[in-house]
């Protein structure tokens, strides 16, 4: 897992962004990243997903071919929340003992008052 964290961090840094925290779960990943306003988040996510796919497949860590699902979720936090969000990201193993990824994601959509349609959500593997 440390290799994955290092590789993802390098991909983030290569795009002139700052990795604040990263944590991988079996079915999703959390990245907490500081961006400059010149970075397009959609391009950033696409590039990180493509290059991390290539890295994971080159290591043959899974049987068959790895690929991320389509889509992503992005939530913005103020500078005053940095410490609490870092703790949240790094505490995912404990967090998901109480709440599934689906429950977590739906609660974030609710917290940020983001309307959504069920058909456009991730495939959750629970």
Report what the structure shows:
This protein has helices spanning 2-13, 41-59, 82-90, 92-98, 101-111; strands at 18-24, 29-34. It has one domain (2-120): Alpha-Beta Plaits. Helix 1 (2-13) runs antiparallel to helix 2. It is mainly alpha-helical. A hairpin with a 4-residue loop joins strand 1 and strand 2 (29-34). Strands 1-2 form a two-stranded antiparallel sheet. The mean pLDDT is 88. It contains five helices and two strands, in the order αββαααα.
Assembly type of the chains comes to single chain
Termini, distance in Å?
21 Å
**Number of separate strands:** 2
Report the CATH architecture: 2-Layer Sandwich
The H-and-E topology, N to C, reads as: HEEHHHH
Tell me the fraction of residues in β-strands, as a range.
Answer: 5-15%
Please report the first level of CATH classification, the CATH class.
Answer: Alpha Beta
Structural class: mainly alpha
Short description:
By secondary structure, this protein is mainly α. 46% of the residues lie in helices and 10% in strands.
Give the key terms.
single chain, mainly alpha, Alpha-Beta Plaits, two-stranded antiparallel sheet, 5 helices, globular
Topology:
Blueprint: H1 2-13, E1 18-24, E2 29-34, H2 41-59, H3 82-90, H4 92-98, H5 101-111
Antiparallel strand pairs: 1-2
């Amino acid at each position: 897992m440390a290799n994955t964290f290092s590789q993802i961090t390098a991909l983030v840094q290569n795009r002139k962004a700052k990795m604040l925290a990263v944590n991988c779960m079996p079915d999703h990943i959390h990245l907490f990243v500081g961006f400059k306003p010149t970075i397009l988040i959609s391009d950033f996510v696409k590039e990180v997903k493509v290059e991390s796919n290539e890295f994971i497949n080159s290591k043959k860590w899974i049987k068959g071919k790895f690929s991320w699902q389509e889509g992503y979720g992005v939530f913005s936090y103020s500078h005053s929340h940095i410490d609490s969000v870092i703790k949240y990201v790094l505490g995912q193993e404990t967090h998901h003992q109480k709440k599934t990824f689906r429950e977590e994601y739906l609660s974030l959509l609710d917290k940020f008052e983001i309307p959504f349609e069920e058909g456009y959500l991730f495939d959750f593997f629970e």
